[in-house]
Every structure is written in C-alpha cells, then in structure tokens.
Amino acid sequence: MIKVKVKETHCTVTDLLPNAQYELWVTATNTTGISPASEKALYMTVPSPPVIKQRECTSCPEAALIRWESGNTNPVDSYNVELSEMGTDGTESGVTESIVAVPTCQCLIQLQTGRRYLISVRAVNIGGPSDRSDVIIVSTTGTFFHLLEETAHPCLSISEDGFTMFYGDEELCVAVLGDLIPVRGRHYWEVEVDDGTEFRIGVAYVDTERSSYLGANNTSWCMRHILTPTRHKYEFLHNGWSPDLRITVNPVRIGVALDYERGTLSFFNVDLEQHLHTFHCHFQSYVHPCFGLDNPGALTVHNSIEAPEYTFT
Fold first, then answer.
1. Fibronectin type-III domain: which residues (predicted)?
2. How many C-beta atoms surround the C-beta of residue 153 within 10 A?
3. Is the Cβ–Cβ distance between 298 and 211 less than 8 Å?
4. Interacting residues of 13 by C-beta distance below 8 A, sequence separation 6+
5. What pTM was computed for the model?
6. Which end of the chain is more exposed for a tag (fewer CB within 10 A), N or C?
7. Which domains does the chain have, with CATH numbers?
8. What are the DSSP calls for 218-243, one per residue?
9. Cβ neighbours of residue 32 under 8 Å, at least 6 residues apart?
10. Consecutive sets of 10 residues in the chain, 313 residues long: mean pLDDT of each?
11. Which residues pair with 264 in a beta bridge?
C-alpha cells in the first residue's frame, strides 16, 4: 500500500505499475485525528508500449502483416496500429492513419504500392492508450520476408539478418521456410547460389509433410539443381515428376514469381532475363517459400525488390 501525505486537495502518485488496477481513497487529518476514508475510486494505469517483432513482419506491394508482443504481463483490451507515409526525403508526411480495436498481436494492413510507411503500435485498456512502440519502416516496393529459423533443419545456420542459409555438414537434404505474407496477388523474390551447390527452391503448403523432399509430393513445387559427373542438371518438380528440360547457362541468381490469381509459379535466370519454367497450378491455400540445400554451401534470399517487367507478362 502506498501512502502520500499532502496539504493540498490534490496530489500526484508516481511509480505505479503499467496496466495495473489501483484503489484510491483519501482521509483527512487534523489535531483531533484521522477521518474515515472516502469512497474508494478504481483507477487503471495505461499499458506499456508493445514490442514489434520486426523479424516476423512481412509485406508485399499491396499490404503488410505486422506482428508484435504485448509488452504487458496482464492482458490488455486491444491495440491501435498507426501508420504514416514517408516522403521522398525520408521525413514523415504528418498524416497519421489509425487502425483501432485490433484484438490480437498482429494486423494485416492494406497499403498502396511503391510507398514507404512508418508503422507503430499502441496497447489500449480502460485507462487509455500506451506510448507508441518503436517505429518500423515498411516498403511496398516488392515482396519482403525473412527465413523462419524455427523451421530450419538442425544442420542449417541462418544469418543474423535472416536472409542467408548455410550448410556445411554431411550431404543431406536440409531445408527452411520463408514467412510469406498471406495475401493473394503477385509476389516476387530472388535467390542467389553458386553453381557448385545443389539446391531446391520453390513453394509449399504449410501442411506439407516435413519429412518429404520439396517437389516430391502434390503440395510443393520446386526447381532443383543436381551436379552430375558430366553436367549440371535442373529439374522442375511437382509430385515427383519433372519435364525433360535442359538449361545451357547455369543461373546463379534465380527469380521466383508467384501469381495466385493466374495460378502460376515461374522461375527466371535474372542475369539473362531468361524464362526457365512455369508451373500452372490452382493454389487452394497460401504457400510458403521453401529453400533447400542437398550438399554443403550457402543460399541467399533477396527480396523487397520490384519485380522486373518480364516476370508477370
């Protein structure tokens, strides 16, 4: 219990815990003694600001998915997400839009293509809104995601920035998922890998059997690179089957274009602007980008880049 002695008819009580309920009452004191307590008043302090989980935020040209931690031990009533557009000089536009009464610790926000936004979150209870969280910058130039470290094979290492996977153990097939935003539209990213690395890159449904190879079932699609004694072999696998294709120039930077509306997944040699193959499929649900290495090496994902004109023609 906190006691504050004052001579005025008002006082400030400090050092209260955030997002906590307090009972307040007043007694008067004179030379005769202490009066009975006043009627008790209930007061709720405002919450602590949430903490945005930047590694778990994703975006595309039409939207962004923002995820955060509450920042409070006790539950809060809801959250407000605030966003403002950045000017070309990097300053805030001054016009802030709020999305209020968000019930959970994530929010899918519809945005305009080719812009940059400053986004923050406030927690709200009956005492009012918290201070705003740290601000993050979200770009809608292209698709943006991180590799999901919790989905990585134990033999894989993920770089601190979340975009490169390393594998230096014995020859196994090891893989990791990317955290693609759940928005039906067009998504584009690029993968950089040297021509001495055997790899699989593609997409898969979230319920794809983790013990199976990428492209070996009807819930995943992939481009596979295999080193043989005589040549570099490339396969485009779905349900264990690949068309008979030959690629004469080994791509070291591969563009991946996913179009939900048209039902296509296409691969390109970025350096040559060359189309390699397109899967035609009607995606029944959202897919995750998938990346696998079949021998020791490294693979880097490049995203938040604008899709070249030739990718969705």
1. 1-45, 46-143
2. 16
3. no
4. 2, 4, 24
5. 0.87
6. N
7. 51-140 (2.60.40.10), 147-302 (2.60.120.920)
8. TTEEEEEEEE-SS-EEEEEEETTB--
9. none
10. 87 91 93 92 95 96 96 94 87 84 97 94 96 96 94 90 87 83 93 92 90 90 92 94 90 96 96 96 93 93 94 89
11. 259, 280
